Amino acid sequence: MEVRTAASPKDVKHYTTDRLREEFLIQDLFIPGEIKLVYSHIDRIITGAAVPVEPLTLTAGAELRANYFLERREMGIINVGGKGTVTVDGKVYTLDYKDGMYIGKGAEDIIFASVDGAEPAKFYLNSAPAHTSYPTVAIKMEGEASEDTVIIKDENKVELGCLEESNHRVINKYILPGQVESCQLVMGMTALKPGSVWNTMPCHTHDRRMEVYLYFEMPEDAFVMHYMGEPQETRHLVVRNEEAIISPSWSIHAGSGSRAYTFIWGMVGENQEFTDMDAVENKELR
Prior knowledge:
- By secondary structure, the protein is mainly beta.
- It has one domain: Jelly Rolls (Sandwich), CATH 2.60.120.10.
- 4% of the residues lie in helices and 42% in strands.
- The chain is built from two helices and 25 strands.
- Its cofactor is Zn(2+).
- It holds the Pfam family KduI.
C-alpha cells in the first residue's frame, strides 16, 4: 500500500508539474492480477483497484495495523471492467459493468473474482474509516431491488448542464443517505454527453470533505485537463484514461476533456450533504 501525506495550499502553489503529479495523481491503478491501494492522509481515504485474473483476497497489510481490511473501515466499489464477483464473508455478489457495491465495517473475508479471466473485472474502490456497521449491498442502475440489492432511485439520476455550455451530463448517485447508508463515504458516477467536455463547472470547493476522481471511458490518445488549487491559485494536471486524482477540501476540482468521458467521484469527511458546496463564480477564477 502506497502512503501519501497531506499537502498545504501554501506549499502547493510552488509545486512543479512533476511534484503536483507525484502528490495528487494516481496512475497504473488497474494492474491485471493485482490489488493496488493508495492511502492518503487527507481524511484517511484509501483509493484502489482490483483486477482479478485469478481470485484476489483483500488483506489489511501492515499499514492499517488491523486484523482485516474493514475492521475499522467501510468501502464502496464500482466495476469498470468485465463481469465479476465480490464475495463478502461467504456471500457472493455479481457486478456487471458500472454496477456498484457498499461493504460495511466488520466484513472480514473479501474476495474479488472475474467471470472470465480473459476479460477481467476492474473493481475500483474507495474506503474510509467507519464508526459503525451498515448493511452490505450491491448497487445497480436498473432492475429489481432485493434484500441485498439496491436500485439507484430516479431522483438520484440527475441530468445537469447543456450542450451550449459544453457540460451536459448525468450524475448517478450510488452511495448517499436515503439510498445506501454509510458512515461517511459518498460515491457516484457522472457521464458526459457526446459533445460535452466540462465537469463540475461552475466549480466549487467543500471544506467539510475531500474528494477523489477516477476518469475513464477515454481512448488512449484522449485526456482530461484537471484543474485544482485555490480559486485564485489554480493549477492543472493532464489525466489519462483510468487515472485518478486526489482533491483536498481546499481545492477546486474541475476538468475539461479532449472529448466526452465518464468519472467516478468519492467523498469522505465531516458530512454527507451532497449540496454542501462553496460555489466559485467563473469570474473569480485565475
